[in-house]
């Protein structure tokens, strides 16, 4: 595991234009001065000694007589995080709803067992490590088998992978590279369900120092050893950029108690919700809460009148309408991306209810169909092993899961953000499974607001 703070520096154009360049803390401190005078930026910068930047920060902070939380909001920090588990990367995103960033994608990158996080780093109990390693080996073997199956299917029939004939018939090097990429991505999209959530990934996030402090509070208060180790590394790198704004970047009793309570709720849920060794039906649900005075179908359609792309204008009626939507069972592979929609609140208890491995995508009568379906047993066993450890109170239970493990997922936001997500996750390049989930949710939306059908820019998830 490695965390690297990357500092921002002015562009050549900014330097040439004579624009000021400040450290993250001096930027925040200079912004803080606005609450105590109205002289403007030039007057604030004139009091800063370029040779003594730290002294200038301290002098401003001494003058400001309120807490640092709002000041820390004005200090941007970028961190690159290498070698954390897929599970911890997911958790990091749940803690960072206002962050921008990227993560290594299982849809475009082949992973192997060499990238598995060590059981010691994950905190797997010593008595379970041999069994855990055996489970991980079986998962990667299934992943390799699945990848070979889907690559063979795509090579035999380009139409299955929805590769345009204009590309397959074009023998130019550029076109053939595009065909190879689409075949590869088609296979990755369907084989990745066998990848363990304990496999390593890399993630980059940029957000304010205040947001990073909140992340540290959660990580350092967490029962998982991997989370605590990341919290310590994040705090250490933050100290390079914003050393004066880290007073609260540590474990907190309230977070320790809250995280434990959530774990206990997941544990209790395991005994109450239906479970399947195979795929659980991803039944969608959607509730809307209109603003005072209501939102008619005609009003909702009018709010979409100028909406010609997913980033375009949406009317205030949709912006004021609350929406709670989700699915009873979503594969963790999809949750990793659904979770990254930044608005609102997500609820995702890590209690497995089924296992999805794309068996429904097999072409009819394919010779490998029966053998492929039996690969699902690997996921079913992993789910049972995880549930047994969850019910026994082992907080490392999630590291037994594979990306095909299905868990409940719920998102509370507003209608405009829901429609954006639906358009994005059914649009060009969307994963086929995202598209199904969001289409299911859109059907429930259309049942309430049929007049919006045709104005919501629902896509066909065509490859790109």
CATH architecture of the largest domain: 2-Layer Sandwich
> How would you characterize the largest beta sheet?
5 strands, antiparallel
CATH topology of the largest domain, anyone?
Answer: Gyrase A, domain 2
User: β content, as a range?
Assistant: 5-15%
Structural domains: how many: 2
Which series of helices and strands comes N to C? EHHHHHEHEHHHHEHHHEHHEHEEHEHH
**Distinct helical segment count:** 19
Averaging pLDDT over every residue, what do you get? 92
Overall spatial form: globular
Q: Percentage of helical residues?
A: 40-55%
Low-confidence stretches: none
Oligomer: single chain
Instruction: Give the class-level CATH name of the largest domain.
Output: Alpha Beta
First and last CA, distance: 33 Å
**Number of E strands:** 9
Structure in a nutshell:
This protein is α+β, with helices and mostly antiparallel strands and 464 residues long. It has 19 helices and nine strands.
Task: Walk me through this protein's architecture.
By secondary structure, this protein is of the alpha+beta class. It contains 19 helices and nine strands. It has helices spanning 12-16, 24-32, 41-46, 53-63, 69-72, 86-94, 119-122, 129-156, 165-168, 173-191, 209-220, 225-241, 253-270, 297-303, 316-319, 332-338, 369-391, 415-424, 432-448; strands at residues 2-6, 76-85, 100-103, 200-208, 284-289, 322-331, 345-347, 354-355, 405-414. The strands form two sheets. Strands 5, 6, 7, 8 and 9 form a five-stranded antiparallel beta sheet that branches. The longest helix is centred in the first third of the chain and has 28 residues, at 129-156. The radius of gyration is 25 Å and the shape is globular. The mean pLDDT is 92.
């Amino acid at each position: 595991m490695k965390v690297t703070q990357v500092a921002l520096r002015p562009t050549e154009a900014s330097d040439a234009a004579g624009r000021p360049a400040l450290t993250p803390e001096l930027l925040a401190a200079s912004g803080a001065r606005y609450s105590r005078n109205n002289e403007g930026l030039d007057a604030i910068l004139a009091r800063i000694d370029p040779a003594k930047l730290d002294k200038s920060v301290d002098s401003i902070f001494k003058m400001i007589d309120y807490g640092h939380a709002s000041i820390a909001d004005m200090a941007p920090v970028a961190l690159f995080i290498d070698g954390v588990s897929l599970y911890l990367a997911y958790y990091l995103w749940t803690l960072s709803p206002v962050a921008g960033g990227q993560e290594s994608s299982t849809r475009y990158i082949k992973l192997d067992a060499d990238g598995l996080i060590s059981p010691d780093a994950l905190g797997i109990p010593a008595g379970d490590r041999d069994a855990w390693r055996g489970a991980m080996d079986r998962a990667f073997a299934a992943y390799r088998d699945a990848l070979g199956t889907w690559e063979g299917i795509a090579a035999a029939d380009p139409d299955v992978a929805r590769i345009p004939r204009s590309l397959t018939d074009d023998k130019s090097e550029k076109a053939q590279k595009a065909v190879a990429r689409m075949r590869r991505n088609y296979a990755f999209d369907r084989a990745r369900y066998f990848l363990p959530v304990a496999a390593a990934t890399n993630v980059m996030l940029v957000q304010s120092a205040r947001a990073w402090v909140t992340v540290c509070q959660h990580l350092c208060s967490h029962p998982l050893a991997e989370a605590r180790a990341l919290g310590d590394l994040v705090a250490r790198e933050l100290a390079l950029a914003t050393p004066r704004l880290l007073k609260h970047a540590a474990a907190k009793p309230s977070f320790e108690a809250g995280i434990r309570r959530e774990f206990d709720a997941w544990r209790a849920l395991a005994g109450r919700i239906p479970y399947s060794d195979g795929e659980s039906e991803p039944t969608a649900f959607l509730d809307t809460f209109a603003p005072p005075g209501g939102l008619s179908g005609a009003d909702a359609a009018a709010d979409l009148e100028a909406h010609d792309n997913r980033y375009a204008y949406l009317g205030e009626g949709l912006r004021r309408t609350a929406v709670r939507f989700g699915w009873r069972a979503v594969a963790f592979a999809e949750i990793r991306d659904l979770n990254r929609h930044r608005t609102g609140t997500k609820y995702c208890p890590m209690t497995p209810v089924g296992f999805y491995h794309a068996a429904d995508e097999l072409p009819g009568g394919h010779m490998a169909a029966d053998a492929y379906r039996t690969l699902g047993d690997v996921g079913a066993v992993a789910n049972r092993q995880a549930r047994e450890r969850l019910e026994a109170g082992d907080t490392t239970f999630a590291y037994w899961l594979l990306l095909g493990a299905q868990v409940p997922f719920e998102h509370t936001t507003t209608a405009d953000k829901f429609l954006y997500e639906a358009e994005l996750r059914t649009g060009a390049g969307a994963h086929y499974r995202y598209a199904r989930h969001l289409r299911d949710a859109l059907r429930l939306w259309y049942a309430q607001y049929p007049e919006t059908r045709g104005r919501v820019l629902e896509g066909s998830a065509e490859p790109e």
